[in-house]
Amino acid sequence: MGVIKDLLKEELDNSLRLRVDYKEELKKHRGGSIVVKEIRGHNYYYLAYRDAKKVRFIYKGKKISKDDIEKLKELRRLRAKYKKLIQKLDKRIKYLKKALHGKED
Amino acid sequence: MEKKINSLCLEVLNRLDEAGVLKDLIVIGSWSIYFYKYYFKSKGYSTFIRTKDIDFSVPIPPKFQKEVDIFKLVEDLGFLEKYRGSKGYIKLEHPDLSIEFLVPERGRGEDKPYSIPQLSINAQPLRFLDFLIENTISINTEGLHIKLPHPAAYALHKFIIFKRRSKAEKHDRDIEGALRVFNELIRHEKHSEIRYIFKRMHKKWQQKILDKLRSTGEQKIAKISIE
User: Fold this and answer.
1) Which of A70, B41, B60, B209 is 20 to 30 A removed from A89 (C-alpha atoms)?
2) pLDDT tens for each residue of chain B, 227 residues long
């Protein structure tokens, strides 16, 4: 029984640590969308993203390259992946805690 | 769950293969037990493993003909690049799989990670890896050629390193896996292969293995090794 408990505990510790890591990555890799603001007949591109309750805008320029758009798409895919994996870890952590009758610190 | 982990592992191997570096890597550790099913090709062989860590051994000096950023190769699968332990060994982590790289430790050994710039990673030096690197087999699955330690080398190696395992649970896991591989080799009457690899080992290692085999009641394997 001790061996199984040790295994579950190890898995729980790893899952908790990894969940923190994914959350840090989400903070690091800000997502957002490209928005165009038309001011006096000219287009200006901004990266709009949510920072807690505020929506912030970062000016990107009068033009935006395909490369930048592609990078942003890639980033969004990655963020979606991380969010999915966090959900997976949440489920796993809940299950492991139940199995161990433990509490999260 | 197991199916998902296996498919993720195969995806990683596929990408390494497409990047042209898999042929220069050896899958060691418990994942070898899983892949030996393609070597033994028997229904009775249990491929059950209790680890998510896949370890790759890199022979040194590395002979990669291409430069590949391994992390970039698997990043979109959700892997994170983490620096673990006080030494800062790189580990690529995913909830279902962790990837680590190891190199043989020689001489007095170095207390720091071994840098492999061709793969943009570092590797942990470990004792006795040369023994695994010198005794390899290749298996074919899903269009991949995967290099593994010879099953006899894998099992014998576990009997050398068992004392280095800090956790009793890991030690027991290693020995159980090694015995499973030994028994499968015996079932396939590959006694001569066990013997051949055993006889090429250092005398001190041989003695260590025989002592451990006898103390765990595995006289039959000990006898096959020295016949």
Assistant:
1) A70
2) 566 678 899 999 999 999 999 999 999 988 999 999 999 988 888 877 777 889 999 999 888 888 999 999 999 999 999 988 778 899 999 999 999 999 999 887 777 899 999 999 999 999 889 999 999 999 998 899 999 999 999 999 998 887 666 676 777 888 888 999 999 999 999 999 999 999 999 999 999 999 989 988 888 999 998 88
Does A105 fall in a domain?
Answer: no
Residues of B in Cβ contact (< 8 Å) with A77: 76
B80 touches chain A (CB under 8 A): yes
Nearest to B78 by CA among A67, A18, A103: A18
User: B94 vs A3: CB contact, 8 Å cut-off?
Assistant: no
Q: How far apart are CA B136 and CA B193, in angstroms?
A: 12
Count: domains in chain A: 1
Q: Would an 8 Å CB–CB cutoff place A95 in contact with chain B?
A: no
Tell the residue number behind the tokens 């998510």, with chain if given.
B52
Domain hosting residue B49, numbered range: 1-149
Does residue A25 sit at the B interface (CB-CB below 8 Å)? Answer: yes
- Considering the domain architecture, whether residues B159 and B70 belong to the same structural domain is answered as no
Sign of CA dihedral B69, B71, B73, B75: negative
